[in-house]
Amino acid sequence: MTASFQNLDGCEFDLEDDAELLYRQIPTHNWDPNVRRPLSHAFGPSSADKGKPSYARSSLASPSESRAWHNENANSKSEVVFAVSVAEVKALDTRSVDDSQCREGQSPGHCYVDFRHLEKFDERKLRAKLYNHAIDRWKIPSESD
């Protein structure tokens, strides 16, 4: 599949460092306490995200900084931090985009995984694959753990 991406805004750019991790906050409503794992849809966009679920770049924020910002500013508290890599995102025929300079008040190192080019069925497949990569890596330690 060759993705047909939307143009980036002037303040956005593609992430290129394959080894960089992208931290994803897992709020209570995306956490299954019975099996102590995130739900697979935690790695994709909510309707409010408009195809751009929020992540944080490991080169610009620690897991603890990212989680603390989320817990101070988001509507729901983060239970735990998981991550996928830039390489894993690229291998799934999408891209990770830094948009940290686009708006004031964003989380440190804000970026997103681009889902905007996908139909709903393909969005679900991408979410599941990102989930699998994150589960393979397991939880990313933060000071709140």
UniProtKB/TrEMBL annotation:
Q: Where is this region: Disordered?
A: 34-72
Q: Where is the composition biased (Polar residues)?
A: 56-65
Record-given protein name: Uncharacterized protein
Species per Swiss-Prot/TrEMBL record: Nakamurella antarctica
The top of its lineage is: Bacteria, Bacillati, Actinomycetota, Actinomycetes, Nakamurellales
